[in-house]
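Practice set, problem 2.
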Amino acid sequence: MEQGTAARAFAAMLRGLYERAASPTLTSLARQGERQQPSVRLPTSSLSNWLTGQSMPSQHRVVQFLVTYLSQQAVQAGRTGAPPGWPRLWEAAVEERRQRRGGRPARPAPGSGPAPQMPVHGRFVAELRPEEAVSEWEVHRPVDVPATVPGSLPLYVRRTHDEILRSVLGQAAGGTSRMVVLVGESSSGKTRACWEAAAELPAGWRLWQPLDPSPAQALANALQEGIAPCTAIWLNELQRYVGEQAGPGSEQVAAGLRKLLQDSTNSPVLVLGTLWPESWNALTTLPTSAKPDPHPQVRALLEGRAIHVPATFEAQELADVRTAGGHDSRLADALAHARNGQITQYMAGAPALLERYRTAPPAVRAVINAAMDASRLGGVTLMAEEFLETAAEGYLSDDAYDALEEDWLRDALVYTQQPSKGVRGLLSQVRARPGANGPGGLRLSDYMDHIGRTERRFSAPPASFWRAAHSYLPEPHLVRALGQAAEARWRDAEAAGLYWRALDLGDVEAGQYLAWLWQERQRDDEARRVEEQTAFAGDGDALEKLLMPLLMQEEYQQAERLVREAASRGNSTAQLHLARALTVDGEAREAAHWYAEIARCSDPDVLRAYADDLRKQGDLDGARAALRAAGDRRAMGELVALAAASGSPAEVEQAAREAFAAGEATPLKDLAEQAEADGRSADAARLYRNAITVFERRRRQRDAGVDLIDFVAGPRSLLDHFNPTVLPMPPGETWALRQLVALLDGTQGALAGDGALTEIAEAGNPWALERLLRRMRERGQDQEAETLLCSEASRANPWALWVQAHRAVHDEQVLDDDRGTLLKRAADARVGQAVRVLMDRAERAGKAIEADQWALHAAARGYTTPLWELVRGREQDGRLEAAEHLAWQAPAIQRSRTLRRLAQGRTGGQVMPLLQRAFDEALAWAPGLLAEHLEASGEFVEAERFARLAADAGDRQALEDLATGRRGDDPERQWQALLSNGMTAEGATAVPW
């Protein structure tokens, strides 16, 4: 910690605790101390100095009593007590004081070395103030209400998602790195929930929000430098850090976060993120087309991390609001005026903003609609005035455009930025920070962004919007994203122009999309021109594609010109080709120049090839450095091979461990098996244990996510599928654990194997526990096995609780109440199968509401199978309305997908009401399915209308299917022209371009 920071943090913690304890008089505190046995002396002057931070208590017994007593008073007042890590903070503060006075530093713990020097980011949580939540941490400013209570934030009412979030934070506070993402609609309370949870982190934790020079770049820089333990990373609006909106470094950021969460040497850290449901789906859905997967690392990072935040308060939660409303007039006002339980939306001023938008003059609405489209189609968050001015023109009718006055934009922006009931306006000015590279601009209100994604779902922007994007957006990845949005809407000419612009700005991915556009039209010359430009922008694959035919036709001079041009523009693949050719020609000096350029690149494939060149040249140290710079699993595997060829056994083992940490398991496994084959049992056991440590860290990281545990993930025999009384082997088995147990059994006896299984089972590995129980029963130790099972169940071991519940479900001698109790205990331990059985029991008993609650409980925690099975079961039973009603209640993350699956299984008149409602609710897939069913039933005009609406919503396939189906009866070749040329911005068939 920096000098003095622990003392300030401890004083802030103590002062906050004192205030939460209702600020008792100092005299009363002194009297309470005197009543202790033995008494604790608390002079009022010392108490005053401690609470103001002028000094601090130095005696452990004094500070123990003071913090304990104030915590009890705070809890009795309905507030939180002292954070669990306060003793460590006090000790650090005392140590700071000792060092400032020249005292001898405290003696380090035995065996501890010097602490690694990690960059420190953020501020101590204990130093944060409630008013900063709005000004610095992006919590929505609450509406102004007369006669409100003091305080910048309303009283907070905990909901179901808050309890799930607290469990994750508890794991982080306990020493294990965690990440969680709150997913919910705009103004549903995601950011406030994160703020309230972060405020309860133990003393010594810091909260940090990466912002400068840009959010994604700030996070990328910090991940490269290292992040200190006990740091909570605040990633509000996570799409700014990973995914399309984050820019070209998104995958590296996601990979860095994954590595950070798996790294036990600097744990714990906590990553807090928020996302809208549509952003979550965009980042986690596997692409189905032949185009490249845009963010596999992001999807792997987010797997199992979501907590659903409902848009509305449930009945019990509304009752809690009513209770808290007696102490906070803002909550009382929200309860009186909010519709459908949308308390947080009302508190964030959403109704006032919506009313201001609805009643705005035409010019203002045009500006807001342009901003809405820029955000929803391209993820553009900051917009320049020039962009809005140019884009807005096309959103105005001829009469409205003719009526514009000279200063119409200035007047419109004044209107949009005017606060409403204390909250920010429709647009707000974001100023560039001094010394930062990030741009300023105008930002659309979060809630109006949400409205735009709903109300403008089936509206395509006018030509002025695409023109403004081409002229005034400086970020290439955002220009490319809008090009993709244009292509998805059949605005192919607009897409081509935007792709060219993004490519000119250096975005190689845009070149790939543009080349595909030309190739689909058999325009090979244009496609080649784009591929050349893409190669010059740095795309190695594009360069290889261009070189291949030249080399096959022996056009070596033309190939050399292409390579030299690409190399001079920074293409690392071209630089590698050129360096190798120059080496062969004996041009060592020029070759060295290009190799030096290659050493600074970030392409793993090129770096691995460079390492191979260095190895052949005898520069083994250089080869190792290049492989470490590449850093992927293939490079780390090659590093092991390099060590095996030239290094000592210790170097080989170290390299194998590094490769294993990077995901390449084979070298370490081979070393362990070779040691076992050579009779070096101790070495083999050590290597197996090294692997087990990594496997177990990954398992704990996976199992401790916010989703429910799925114990059907283990292997099952065919007979098991027909015998529900047989439990499948649970997950958790690894080759390292299996082979270690076999090795110990063979060399030291079964008790040694049991010992290893016991050790891993106690760490929570269900396979190890199951295997241990099975071995005990095979030896006739049934009573010992049962005792072990009960012991593990008493420790709330999820697998043990599920075993007991599963046996009870299939044992007719067990009372039904006892069976239900065991199932609920397993469900409380996050066992997904227990939740599923409880849902099935309620459904069979005719308790539909209870069954719904269990299904929705599982879905909110990421376990969607029970919900879909319940929906499908009701559908198959002919209870269509009940199935549809439950599907509409699904959390926002799964609602659209569940309804789509339901609609795809229906035919004829059964499906149309569902599709019509889905269309009314602005679900993007609805018009495409409507077009398909209407076309099949002969309603061709309506089918075309909905197919075009689907295209405007970004569903290209619906109109393509309809056009392809009608191409056989197309005397004027209108449909053929559409397939060839796409549409204009206004929706007419485009001319050839």
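Problem 2, part (b): a different protein.
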Amino acid sequence: MPLFCDVALPVPLDQTFTYAVNGVVPVVGARVLVPFSGQRLMGVVLRIHEDALPEGIEAKPVQQVLDESALLPDELMRLAAWIAQYYVAPLGEVLRGMMPLAAEVKRQVFYRIAEQGRKVLYEGAERGSSRRSRLTPEEQNREYAVLNYLESGEQAKMSALRSAAQANKALLEGMVRKKWLVREAVAEERDARRLERVAVLVPEARLPKLNDNQTAILAELAAVGGRMRVRDLRELQVPDSTLGTLVKRGLVAIEEVAEAFHMGGVGSAQDKKHAHEHALNEAQLEALGTIAAAMTKGGFQPHLLYGVTGSGKTTVYFAAMQRALDAGQSALLLVPEIGLTPAMTGQLVAAFAGEVALLHSQLTPDERAEQWHRIRRGEARVVVGTRSAVFAPLVNLGLIIVDEEHDSSYKQEDMPRYHGRDVAVMRAKFNGATVVLGSATPSLESWANSEKGRYKRIEMLTRVANRPLPLVELVDMRQEFQETGQDQIFCRRLVEEVQATLDRGEQAIILLNRRGYSFVAMCRSCGEKIECENCAISMTYHKLASRTDLHAQPGERLECHYCGFRRAVPKTCPKCQSEHLYYMGAGSQQGEERLQEIFPNARIGRMDRDTVRGRGDMERLLTRLHGGEINLLVGTQMIAKGHDIHGVTLVGVVGADFALGLPDFRAAERVFQLLTQVSGRAGRGELSGKVLVQTYHPDHYAIQFAAKHDYPGFVAKEMQYRRWMHYPPFSVLANVLIQSDKLEEATAWSAILGRWFQLERLEKVRVLGPAAAPIVRLKRIFRYHFVLKAERRQVLGEVLRRMLTHAASEGIPRRSLTVDVDAVNLM
């Protein structure tokens, strides 16, 4: 009987694909390269079988088997199936996200001539219509040069066509759309090992007569023990040929070795020493005892660790991880953002040395593959990373910790749209492991689970060494304007407190939760706002790059923070040609500029997406902050999460309450969490802290409870509104997004689904919509949506799958439908 395998491919289709096995028989869980729709894709084998195919269907053969054994253990395969079921996502997309091994598969794009292209070349049938197109005569000539080059039928890379015919990607893709060319994507196996060249001094070699450059290299090698990286030798500023001459003469040998991985890490030596020693107070010991008891007992044990900011949750995490390692198990620590990994990594390396592995998106593909394989081989038993690290192939996983579990960064915004926190809980369930969700402001969903007894709640309600929580003072900006008659970024009280803090030699942080200089550019004459040409969003004004903008391009510009489109700042209004353009709203760049004017002697730093782009930027900035080189830091919410800088005694909050006006039922929860988290950066050392919150809504319950550090009070109030409006945690929710680059298609498809929801007469699911999404056009894609609410997850999932089946029957492409279960962002 012929042998077949079912393969999950990373395509937006809710199905698997069957291929014939003609050579090496792959195992379930291995990767294979297979042909699919004119491409060569990598997929994961789900089943080997001899089932007969339907009559008239012939299976294409597997082209290459990449793995001798299953790459993913059984528990991760089960987790992938659960994610696909729960989040209504294609299984192939889920499995692709689980394996950060893109570096091991080289993807290349080839072009070859199509029949229509050959007809154009030989008969000139399309020459007339081509000249009536938008192409210039030069571009038309390049098209024919491409066809001439490909006339033999051989395929060619874009680089070859660029050299032979001066073709660019836009020209070639245009020819593909006209069906003159066929575009083929080919995947091939690639060696992703990171190697570096090392120069080695050959012992007992006879030294001939040497010139000065050769002598310098040999002397340097001898001084460092006979081995040195070739790239480090270049610092001697001698010609590269000099080393080659020494190699030919047998005086130096060149070896290729595995390149060392830089773990990074910031923080003072005292911080790292403290993390390593795990000096626990009574509350920490009690929390650790509860977690350790669950680990000893074994089996799935979920916990919610509710601890105020500065209560020492991180120390409890590390002590629990040490218990896991002592028991021969491994541990996983998730953090919400890459910005938190440097400080956490520094402490982990101090505590666990070579046992630590790092996983996040700012590693290079080769680095991610290297770290992933270290984990899979059991060489690293402690893993720290962002949400995708939840899929790390740890051996004998015993403990999962989700730090800042409330953070929305744990929700994946691309397919598959999983929530890292909830996946961590399910992974612990499949592994029979203990999971700890930690936060000073737990999500309402996690709090509700602890109230129902699903999670065991652990509370740490005092700071380490009984340090007081910071005093929070609200500044009513309405009254400030009445008294001063001016609309200033920083109120008088905040300016006074910052000056006093700097005079005492202490540090201050100011949260200004908007990037750029101004976030609205408006014409005073006609009221027109300058919007992005790709998105229905006002463009943000960026002024001249400051000294902290390490990656910014010089000059003024308008930028869309959603699609990245940039344009020059216009001198007149695009609509009415008025010269009276006005920039409203202050971003972090303007905040930095204003602070430099007010405090000329301050050592100011800025932390936002413009200053922290690369992998090492956050590490360098935090090192300067820990060392006291910066004494006044301004930034977006990046500064609010998890940083432990003992010299900070003052925190200022500017404009955080604007989020209360967003069309989002979680708005109050997010503002409360942000205020509480950023307040927690003050007074973490020996000196007490103070927080000043500038607000136009001083009476709002979220701000009032945040000022009193009263999380239970806020939860009680917010839960009332959620219960009345049937929002989570009193219901389950999904956001269904319909997208198309044509407005008529998006509206037509929305109408089709709207009629289906009406005809189905769903009694247990509430359907809101269709309606234009809050951002109706994003990256040139028009967006409409439905919001579905139900009391039971099973009912919601069944309705969503039936909806997708109906959409397919109506010809709505699957890639144009996004199903976001447990949606965090409804924008």
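Answer key, part (b): Residues 116-181 form one domain. The chain has a mean pLDDT of 87.
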